[in-house]
Amino acid sequence: PLTLIKDDKAQPSKRIMEHEQAMSIVQMLESVTEQGGTAKAAAIDGYRVAGKTGTSRRINPDGGYYSDQYRNVFAGIAPASNPRLVGVMLIEDPRGQIYAGLTVAPVFHNVMKEALRLYNVPLDKPLKTEN
Q1: Which domain holds residue 101?
Q2: Of 57, 110, 122, 131, which cross-links 65 as Cys (Cβ 3.0–4.6 Å)?
Q3: 91-98: long-range contacts (C-beta < 8 A, 24 or more apart)?
Q4: Cβ(49)–Cβ(55) under 8 Å?
C-alpha cells in the first residue's frame, strides 16, 4: 500500500486491478510522451515514459477562476515496462506558455532522467542514434 510514513512493519496489500489491466493503462499513458502526444518533452532517451498532463485555470478566492492564471501538472512513471520511479511536478502560474506539455513536462524530464541515472535503473528502450 502507498504510504508517506515510514513503517518498519509491512502493511498487507490488496490487488485492486489485474496486472494486465494496469499495464494496458500504462501503455495508453505512454502515448502522451510519444510523437503526437501532449508531453513529448517528458520523454527520456533510452526509457519508456508514461504520464499525464494537466492544465487548469487557478481558482479566484473571490469566486470563479482567473482568466489569465494557470496551474500545470505532469505525473509520470519510468521505465514504463517495469515502473521503478514516479514523479509529479507542478508549476503554479507559469509565464510565457500555459500548457503543461510545454512548461512542466521538461521539468519532469530533467528530474526523472537524473533520478534514473542516480538509481542506475536499466534502460528499457534502445537509445536514439544519429544518422
Answers
A1: 19-118
A2: 57
A3: 92/58, 93/58, 93/69, 94/70, 98/55, 98/70, 98/72
A4: no
Residue 125 counted as domain residue:
no
H or E element that contains 90? strand 85-92
Which residues are 74's β-sheet partners? 53, 89
Number of compact structural domains in the chain = 1
pTM: 0.84
The list of the chain residues with pLDDT below 70 reads 1-2, 131
Residue 56 lies in a domain: yes
Give the domain CATH number at 82.
Answer: 3.40.710.10
Distance CA 42, CA 86 (A): 13
